[in-house]
Design a protein that fits this description.
Distance between the termini of chain E: 54 Å
Number of strands of chain A: 2
Number of helices of chain A: 26
Strand order of the largest sheet of chain E: 1-2
Largest sheet of chain A: 2 strands, antiparallel
Structural class of chain A: mainly alpha
Oligomer: heteropentamer
Strand order of the largest sheet of chain A: 1-2
Number of helices of chain E: 22
Shape of chain A: globular
Strand content of chain E: under 5%
Largest sheet of chain E: 2 strands, antiparallel
Chains: A mainly alpha (622), B mainly alpha (180), C mainly alpha (101), D mainly alpha (512), E mainly alpha (545)
Chain lengths: 622, 180, 101, 512, 545
């Protein structure tokens, strides 16, 4: 099997899996799961072979042509793609395994696994695509699989609503993305990444801020940046493994990946915007996370915050004043991708941990209704703890390295940004402590948490594996030469800078942990923040009113506007104009009918006047 | 003399025609119609159309109007039911009459319409009458107008059958009547 | 002998107008029908006059035909009127309004 | 004496009776019917309508098979210029024969069981048909007038034929007086034309001024002559009465409603077609030099005719009046074709084609009407057509095809007719009329389909939420005779087939 | 047997018509089983022919048409003859007509409609007309067949329709007749002015290549065609017949009309109007594009406000026609090609939606989406079908890839025409997502509503059944097939569209080359073999990231 064939088959296998399950095994849940996991394994093995075989390819097939306009199905596998593929394949496989346990009793298991396979297919497409249209296609497809999976519990109105919201908000982002693609096509005459890069290289002036910002819209939607982040917390209505896979580790990170993949299309002016959006998202996410009580929502906001980190890191690439721009951007990419990888592992771990907890507690998700779980679920607890520490950036764990790289970059470039990111780090430590303490310590607060017990190995094994990755992913040995294209670009602080950045990092971490410990205490039964600072809590739990604004828009603007247009359509066009015209003609008709009075004299007058009329016409012509 | 006769016959014709229109009693109208017909016959004579003049008196005055009179007597509606023209209708018809007169006169008088010199050059005095012996009619009717003549025969046949059809009483008439 | 075609045409046209006026004015079917005959006679007059001044016989022949036709029409028309009277007991036009609108 | 007579002999020699054999045979047939009525014993008299129809069929076949060339007189004048035989005349002969056959057939349905004389109906129909044929071929105003009056007098009798009904008589009277007025106007116009065209003072004047050819030659010299213009206007007005063009259409609804169905059909098809044949002849062969004023006059008439006919028909509920008013609209479209024929030679063919398809469709509809309202004066309202498709599906299909063709819906022949007229109009540059026609056709869709809707829709399924729709009681079932099926079916099939394949008729299109 | 292909075209048109007529005439005397069998054959033949010809399609290089044949009908005087053939533009629509016709017919066969024979007969006649519309090379017959197909719609709505059927049928017919007649006037104008005195598209083209029509005449003629056809395609604001009519129409009729017949107008503009009247088209296009945006945005929002499922599908179909118009407005190979694909894809999708909508109705006994909910629990497969169809309709490049191809291509073309128009056009995609997903959510997800529960009376609601599934699958398979492999259609479309419409080279419009020409000198040299890893652009063309 040639490399090309291998790559294509990596794309096709999950698709076939989804298709086969959809058509043949809708009711054969076990077979469906087996098929899906087999596909995931094939993807995993093939990916590892590709990645570590150091195979890099570019090729394409023509898909459609009109005149000079051609769309091709193109594949472009490079280091960047390899890095993401690694995360997708590994995390994806682990989550398939985990799901086997988590979804064991679910009546829609086959559907669920079909969705997972569909998602793997779509994600593979994004990873491999070599042109913007193909990226867009798979971009929408991951959106679809996300929709289907969020909607897994479709009988719950909340899930249905959330899925709809996710899809529509993503479409909003894709609206910009598509505009950007179309603009790019006419701007660059091509949509092939490879050719566009060459064009930009030959003539850097051809870049356009508008294109850059429109393409960034894609990440805005998928990666949950302000103001399109609203769908991500709601997306937690889906099964927890899905949240782990799609809404934490891979799909949402794809936005970052896309930015990195098309970095050369984004001029520095756009980078600045991107950076600030990222920073705002980072701090916003962490602030929102503080007041959430749903374990998954906390993690979701945390994800938003971390994605903001990555976006900010990417944007930071623009700010290196000295030294040439290319390197600077590379540094941003390096930092962002590095964090993407580590975050992928530890956030997947956290979600799976949460999933394990939820599963054990019979789908209880409120952290104040858990408690004391560390004793009952030791493996989960240990793994979750590793995840928490990685997330907050405990030195020695993966998160520390990647976060430091970003902080360093910020420190070098923009102190305001550095402060924001540092504050985010502090808040992260604060809310994760709250979660950790409330969920795992103290007394069990509900019967469910009292009866909770450790899950079987199918669910814990992935946790353990991910925990290992969360520990080691930051170390250089994890990144052999094959990832050099990216990893070499990750900025490493040295000397005083290192000391400073690491020092600040550790300081905020400790501050956050301690503050959290002190403020919430162990095994709290209720949210202390809410009690003591109801104003602040209220403000934060309102999540900056984003959802209210959207809600208001939908109900008061969109719905009313469409009702108005509907009214106009019915009353004005259909009623007044069309029916009105018909009515007018009808009136004439009644008049014409009335002219037939039945009186012979009137008829003779008609004839008489007819002759007169004809004569007048003759005279008029002459 | 001829001129006088023309004016006389014209006046008689117009006058009695006007009386046909205006007289209230249909019988009177019919009588005036006879006078008008005779006036026209007189004009025919002036135009040397003697055969037609005779025909006019015989057919119209002698047959047609008498038929009218018969019918008027037969129906004998008399004074029972007589609807007179309403105000609006009268005004309208008078206006129509004015229009008609204007039209008629403009046809006849306007120099635009009539070829210049037509009036003066060709008068009764200066032109020769065309042959008007009944034999002339015969020649024409049996040569050039053979076909119309035959068709006219059919026309009269149809008219005759029609009249019989419409006037004849049928045995089961009452039955038919009941249906309506 | 100075009477020319114009004079006859005036006579005929006015007669036609009077006849038309009668058709418009009168309510009695029979009188209306008589007025129609007046109009036909006006035509006859014009035709005979034209025939005389054009020096062709066709006009006269045509009049012959018209008289024939008129007689036939009157016969049929009066038959209709009589039959109608038998059914409706009226010959006034405004009464004939079963058919309208 | 010989000298005087010799020109007459020459003229008499032109009386080629063999040129009008079809008309003669109809006339003889008409007379034969009267004779047969006397000869036949009472119980045999029922056969007479059959004889009439069979005789006409024979004439028709003979005409189509052996008399296609008009007895060799095509392109010639006969009877001293009284007649002119051309392809149009040939086509109209066939047309009127078909009309008369169908009228005769409808007559058998309508007259059945009525205590009315039957033989006379066929007799008059035959004479009128012969006169119509002559009218279409006439080349001289005297011939024109006489045949026209024969037709008219025949129609007086036919319209009031159902004398047991007040409305029939009333219609007859209305037709009588209005037709009389229009005849008088027409005659006055002819008189003026004769007077001016034969005036020895004018160049180009003719001895035979009532001959169409001679008049045309005269008008070529004097297209602006005022007297001739008035004459033209009055003649056109007289013809417009026959074709029911606005504002001379006013008699149509009343008379159509009052007359019995076969007579209405005869009026709607035969009389109207004759008017158009005459109009074509007059416009193309006589008044053509006056094009400059003729076209505007006809344009105004056509515009108003189309608009008025369609608009007035929109809210009409009586089917006969509806057919009358829609017939007015059709007259408008045909007028467009007539105007176009001044510029586009083949437009005559288009008018002819239109007339033929109008015949087929009209008789299909009138045939259904005749079957539905044997009791005249009743059953002519749209409401009487409710549930027709349920109770008498065959009639419903025929009705739908007929109405569809009248509305100009493909694949029915009426559509082809309209398209040909439209193409001709466009080629002639009559954009305004084209626009008006299209507007008119859209309006006509409304009432034709409204009728179809009434006949077809209100049946079968009753939506549960439409409580006002209740199944109407079935009408009593009346057998449709096999012959009726054959004829109505034939009309419908011909309408459909002509929509797809116009071969037989387009023959004439090419020749005109 | 290439010689027999023209014969196949005739077969595809006249077999259904013939069978339909037979059913109509002898409906009383035919057994039910026989009726079904004959109707099935009548629907199958066009579909089979369409698919066969799709495979066998290879146009003549001179005319661009394949399978040409001519039958005289007796109107040689105006040069009208039944000339049939297919080119790259008509092929997709011919296939569409065959496929949708089969699906609609199949569904009708088993729909259990009252008076099934008549219903099938009308559908068959309509089907024959549809096949004829797209196979006609003669403009006259193109129009002719359209009307043949239109009239059965009227009758079907009137007899088998739903709420407001009488009004809807009348309005639809009068409105569409108006459009048809306007376009007929335009076609006649084209015929007369072209100087070809022929209704044959090929001759018309040839005549106009030599001497084109004056610009003023082009403007008027194109306006007639534009508004005539526009009414038929429910161009805003002439759309009000559409949703009403579809709302009232029986399912199979709605499928055929919305899916296929409606494309007639666009097809006419694309195949005849714009290529033959280039100047007129050019002058009118901006206006058309504005109206089309009205379709997209205004009707988009109106669709959002709909509560009735069928009305919503109807309005969404109106909205999507806006995209096709936008594609046409570009007058470029890309835009028009996109419009053709979109027509094809939309035809399949909307037919599918009407079909599934009826399946839903049969289960819920209402079209009001507010009274539905949670249906997916009982009917997961139906839900899957419906979701797929809806997503295809809203242009998701997912399972219904074909729609996406069309929309994308239209957008690409549109940018070149007027950049700002792309923004509202693409925004329409968001709107369609709103109503599409709302409908899906309301019908299938969430808790079953009380009304619905009481309607089902505790009965188990069956999932989609074989007779519903078969037509749906037929439609879906073709849709996905073309979506996955668009070249199966686009190659032939391109072949026809490219000579007719201008091909815009991107660089011409883009600002890139406006300043200096040197940019064009850049050539892309692709590295052979495996691309070297990890290099930023300056290190080689592979572009490391």
């Amino acid at each position: 099997m040639s490399n090309e064939q291998l790559i294509v088959s990596l794309l096709v296998v999950p698709f076939l899996s989804a298709l086969v399950i959809g058509i043949f095994f809708r009711r054969r849940h076990e077979i469906a799961a087996a098929v899906s996991i087999a596909a995931a394994s094939v993807v995993l093995l093939g990916s590892l072979y590709l990645i570590f075989g150091n195979i890099r390819e570019e090729f394409s097939y023509e898909w459609m042509t009109f005149g000079d306009y051609t769309v091709s199905m193109g594949f472009y596998f490079n280091d960047l793609a390899a890095l993401l593929l690694f995360v997708v394949a590994v995390v994806g496989f682990l989550i398939h395994i985990f799901s086997l346990g988590y979804m064991k009793e679910d009546p829609g298991k086959a559907r669920y696994f079909a969705g997972l396979s569909l998602f793997m297919f779509s994600m593979m497409g994004i990873v491999f695509a070599n042109n913007l249209i193909m990226i867009f296609i798979f971009w929408e497809l991951v959106g679809l699989s996300s929709f289907l999976l969020i909607n897994h519990y479709y009988h719950k109105p909340a899930a249905s609503e959330a899925a709809k919201k996710a899809f529509i908000v993503n479409r909003l982002g894709d609206f910009g993305f598509l505009l950007g693609i179309i603009w790019s096509y006419w701007h660059f005459e091509t949509l092939n990444l490879f050719e566009m890069a060459a064009l930009v290289e030959a003539n850097p002036d051809i870049l356009h801020v508008g294109i850059g910002l429109l393409l960034f819209c894609s990440a805005l939607g998928k990666s949950g940046q302000i103001p399109l982040h609203v769908w991500l917390p709601d997306a937690m209505e889906g099964p927890t493994p899905v949240s782990a896979l799609i809404h934490a580790a891979t799909m949402v990170a794809a936005g970052i990946y896309l930015l990195c993949r098309i970095y050369f299309l984004i001029p520095p002016e756009a980078m600045v915007w991107i950076m600030w959006v990222g920073a705002a998202t980072a701090i916003f996410g962490s602030l929102c996370a503080i007041t959430q009580t749903d374990i998954k929502k906390i993690l979701a906001y945390s994800t938003i915050s971390q994605l903001g980190y990555m976006v900010a890191a990417f944007g930071l690439g623009s700010l290196v004043i000295d030294g040439d721009a290319g390197t600077a951007i590379q540094a941003g990419i390096g930092a962002a991708m590095f964090h993407l990888v580590t975050h992928g592992f530890f956030k997947a771990l956290l979600f799976l941990g949460a999933g394990s907890v939820i599963h054990a507690c019979h789908h209880e998700q409120d952290i104040y209704r858990m408690g004391g779980l560390w004793r009952k679920m030791p493996v989960t607890f240990a793994a979750f703890t590793v995840g928490v520490l990685a997330l907050v950036g405990m030195p020695g764990l993966a998160g520390f390295f990647s976060k430091d790289a970003i902080l360093y970059l910020a420190w070098e470039n923009n102190s305001a940004l550095f402060l924001i990111l540092a504050a985010t780090a502090l808040l992260t430590a604060f809310y994760m402590t709250r979660l950790w303490l409330a969920a795992f310590f103290g007394e069990p607060k509900t019967r469910a948490s009292r009866d909770a017990k450790e899950n079987n190995w199918i669910m814990t094994a992935p946790l353990v594996i991910l925990a290992i990755f969360s520990v080691v992913a930051g170390y250089d040995f994890m990144h052999p030469a094959i990832f050099d294209g990216i990893m070499q670009e990750v900025p490493h602080a040295e000397g005083a800078d290192f000391a400073l950045v690491a020092g600040v990092s550790v300081a905020v971490l400790l501050a956050g942990l301690i503050a959290g410990w002190l403020f919430y205490g162990v095994g709290a039964r209720e949210d202390r923040l809410e009690k003591q600072f109801p104003g602040l809590h209220g403000f934060l739990s309102a999540r900056f009113f984003f959802d209210d604004v959207y809600e208001w828009y939908v109900v008061n603007v969109q719905q009313r506007f469409s009702s108005l247009l509907n009214f106009i359509d019915h009353i004005l066009i259909s009623g007044l104009i069309v029916r009105g015209a018909a009515g007018l003609v009808g009136l004439f008709s009644l008049g014409a009918r009335a002219a037939h009075t039945g009186n012979l004299h009137v008829y003779v007058y008609w004839i008489f006047l007819g002759v007169v009329l004809m004569w007048l016409v003759v005279k008029g012509v002459q | 003399m001829v001129d006088f006769l023309f004016y006389f016959f014209t006046a008689v014709t117009w006058g009695s025609a006007a009386m046909v229109v205006l007289s209230r009693n249909p019988v009177n109208a019919a009588m005036f119609l006879i006078v008008a017909m005779v006036g026209i016959a007189g004009l025919f004579v002036l135009l040397s159309a003697f055969f037609l003049a005779v025909l006019q008196v015989l057919v119209y005055a002698g047959a047609v109007v008498v038929l009218f009179l018969f019918v008027i007597m037969l129906l004998d509606e008399g004074e029972k039911r007589r609807i007179r023209a309403g105000k609006v209708s009268s005004v309208a018809s008078v206006m129509a009459l004015v229009l008609l007169l204007v039209g008629a006169l403009s046809v006849a008088v306007s120099p635009d319409l009539v070829v210049p010199g037509m009036g003066e050059a060709r008068t009764l005095g200066t032109t020769e009458p065309v042959g008007d012996a009944p034999r002339e009619y015969g020649y024409h009717l049996f040569t050039a107008y053979m076909l119309p003549f035959q068709v006219a025969g059919f026309l009269l046949l149809v008219a005759m059958i029609g009249v019989i059809l419409l006037s004849k009483r049928y045995r089961d008439e009452s039955e038919v009547r009941a249906q309506v | 002998m100075n009477i020319g075609i114009v004079d006859f045409l005036v006579a005929s046209a006015l007669l036609f107008a009077i006849g038309f006026f009668g058709v418009l004015l009168r309510r009695n079917t029979l009188v209306v029908y008589m007025c129609l005959e007046l109009m036909l006679n006006a035509v006859n007059l014009a035709l005979v006059a034209f025939s005389r001044f054009n020096g062709t016989m066709d006009g006269n022949i045509f009049v012959f035909f018209i008289i024939t036709v008129a007689a036939a029409e009157v016969a049929v028309g009066l038959a209709i009127i009589v039959t109608l009277f038998r059914r409706r007991e009226t010959v006034q036009l405004p009464d004939l309004n079963l058919l309208r609108h | 004496m010989n000298d005087t007579l010799s020109p007459f002999k020459e003229i008499a020699a032109s009386n080629q009776w063999s040129a009008i054999l079809p008309e003669i045979s109809l006339g003889v047939l008409a007379l034969a019917l009267l004779v047969l009525e006397i000869l036949f014993p009472r119980h045999r008299r029922k056969l007479i309508p059959g004889v009439a129809i069979f005789g006409q069929l024979l004439v028709l076949f003979w005409l189509l098979l052996f008399y296609r060339d008009g007895g060799g007189f095509l392109g010639q004048e006969t009877f001293a210029g009284m007649l002119f035989h051309d392809e149009l005349g040939q086509a109209m002969r066939v047309f009127f024969l078909l009309t008369s056959l169908l009228v005769g057939y409808l007559g058998t349905i309508t007259l059945a069981g009525k205590p009315l004389p039957k033989v006379e109906f066929y007799h008059i129909t035959l004479v009128v048909t012969a006169a119509l044929m002559l009218l279409a071929q006439s080349n001289h105003f005297v011939m024109f007038f006489i045949s026209l009056e024969t037709v008219t007098v025949g129609f007086y009798v036919l319209v009031s034929y159902f004398r047991h009904q007040s409305i029939s008589l009333e219609a007859g009277l209305k037709y009588l007086i209005l037709s009389g007025v229009s005849s008088a106007i027409l005659l006055f116009g002819i008189a003026l034309l004769y007077g001016i065209g034969g005036s020895p003072l004018l160049a180009g004047a003719s001895d035979d001024a009532m001959n169409f050819g001679a008049l045309n030659a005269f008008l070529k010299n004097h297209p602006e002559n005022g007297l001739a213009l008035i004459g033209m206007v009055m003649v056109i007005a007289g013809v417009a009465f026959k074709i029911a063009a606005f504002p001379f259409q006013i008699w149509v609804p009343d008379v159509y409603q009052g007359a019995s169905t076969p007579v209405t059909a005869f009026l709607a098809v035969g009389s109207k077609a004759a008017g158009f044949a005459v109009l074509l002849t007059l416009v193309l062969k006589v008044f053509q030099p006056m094009e400059a004023v003729l076209v505007p006059v006809l344009t105004v008439l056509a515009t108003l005719t189309i608009l008025f006919g369609n608009i007035a028909a929109l809210t009409q509920r009586n089917t006969k009046r509806l057919m009358g008013l829609s017939g007015v609209a059709h007259a408008g479209y045909l007028l467009v074709g007539v105007i176009a024929s001044l510029y586009v030679p083949w437009a005559q063919g288009a008018v002819l084609f239109y007339l033929f398809v109008y015949l087929l469709a009209s008789f299909a509809v009138f045939g259904v009407m005749a079957h539905l309202s044997p009791e005249d004066g009743t059953g002519d309202e749209l409401e009487d057509y409710l549930n027709l498709a349920r109770d008498r599906p065959f009639l419903a299909v025929v009705l739908v095809i007929g109405l569809g063709s009248l509305a100009g819906i493909p694949p029915l022949a009426g559509f082809i007719g309209k398209v040909l007229i439209f193409i001709a109009a466009f080629q002639a540059g009559l954009y305004w009329l084209l626009g008006v026609s299209i507007f008119g056709v859209v309006l006509s869709i409304y009432y034709y389909f409204g009728w179809i809707k009434t006949a077809v829709f209100r049946e079968w399924k009753v939506a549960p939420d439409d409580e006002d729709e209740q199944e109407a009681p079935r009408r009593e079932h009346r057998e449709i005779a096999p012959l009726a099926r054959l004829i109505l079916g034939g009309l419908a099939v011909a309408t459909v087939v002509l929509g797809f394949f116009q071969g037989p008729l387009s023959d004439w299109l090419g020749r005109l | 047997m290439p010689e027999s292909y023209p014969f196949l075209l005739h077969l595809a048109i006249f077999i259904p018509m013939l069978f339909g007529t037979i059913l109509l005439l002898f409906s009383g005397s035919l057994g039910e089983a026989f009726v079904r069998r004959i109707a099935f054959v009548g629907f199958l033949v066009p579909a089979a022919v369409a698919l066969w010809l799709w495979i066998a399609f290879s146009p003549d290089p001179v005319t661009g048409y394949a399978f040409l044949s001519t039958v005289p009908t007796g109107l040689e005087i105006v040069d009208i003859s039944l000339k049939l053939g297919l080119n790259g533009i008509s092929l997709p629509l011919f296939v569409l007509a065959g496929v949708v016709g089969f699906a609609a017919g199949f569904y009708a066969l088993v729909s259990g409609a009252e008076r099934l024979r008549q219903y099938l007969a009308l559908l068959l006649i309509m089907q024959g007309g549809l096949m004829g519309v797209f196979a006609s090379v003669d403009v006259f017959f193109f129009y002719f067949f359209h009307e043949i197909a239109l009239i059965p719609t009227f009758v079907m709505i009137g007899i088998w329709g739903g709420r407001e059927r009488h009004y809807a049928a009348m309005k639809l017919t009068v409105y569409l007749s108006l459009g048809a007649l306007l376009s007929l006037a335009g076609l006649i104008a084209l015929y007369v002015q072209s100087g070809a005195s022929s209704f044959d598209i090929i001759s018309l083209k040839a005549a106009l290549e030599g001497e084109s029509i004056s610009e003023v005449a082009q403007n008027y003629t194109f306006a007639l065609l534009l508004f005539g056809f526009g009414i038929l395609v429910s161009l805003w604001p002439f759309h009000t017949w559409a949703a009403l009519g579809y709302g009232a129409a029986p399912t199979s009729a709605a499928m055929l009309h919305a899916g296929v017949l409606k494309k007639f107008g666009l097809y006419g503009l694309i195949q005849i109007g714009a290529p033959l009247l280039p100047q007129g088209a050019e002058n009118w296009m901006y206006f058309l594009a504005l109206l089309a945006l009205g379709n997209v945005i205004i009707i988009g929002f109106v669709t959002v406000a709909q509560r009735d499922l069928k009305q919503m599908i109807g309005f969404s179909s109106v909205m999507h026609m806006g995209y096709c118009f936008l594609g046409l407005a570009c007058l470029s190979a890309v835009g028009v090609g996109g419009a053709v694909i979109l027509m094809f894809a939309h035809g399949l999708t909307v037919a599918l939606l009407f079909l599934l909508g009826n399946c839903i109705y049969r289960r819920t006994e209402t079209f009001d989406m507010r009274e539905m909910g949670g249906l997916a629990r009982n009917t997961p497969v139906l839900a899957a079908f419906f979701v797929t169809a809806m997503l295809a309709s809203i242009g998701l490049p997912g399972p219904g890839l074909a729609n996406f191809w069309g929309e994308l291509t239209v957008f690409i073309g549109l940018w070149q025409y007027r950049e700002w128009m792309v923004i509202p056009a693409v925004f329409g995609v968001v709107i369609s997502a709103v109503y599409g997903l709302r409908a899906v959510g309301n019908i299938f997800f969430g808790e079953p509503t009380e009304a619905f529960q009481s309607a089902s009376k505790g009965k188990r609601i069956p999932d989609i059944q074989w007779h519903e599934r078969t037509p749906a699958l037929v439609l879906l398979v073709v849709l996905i097939l073309v979506g996955l492999w668009p070249r199966s259609l686009t190659d032939s479309i391109d072949e026809s569209v490219s000579p007719m419409y201008r091909i815009v080279v991107p660089g011409e419009e883009a600002s890139v080359t406006g300043d200096d020409g040197e940019f064009e000198a850049v050539s892309f040299e692709r590295a052979e073999g495996p691309v070297s890893c990890c290099s930023p652009p300056k290190r080689g063309p592979a572009g490391g990231l």
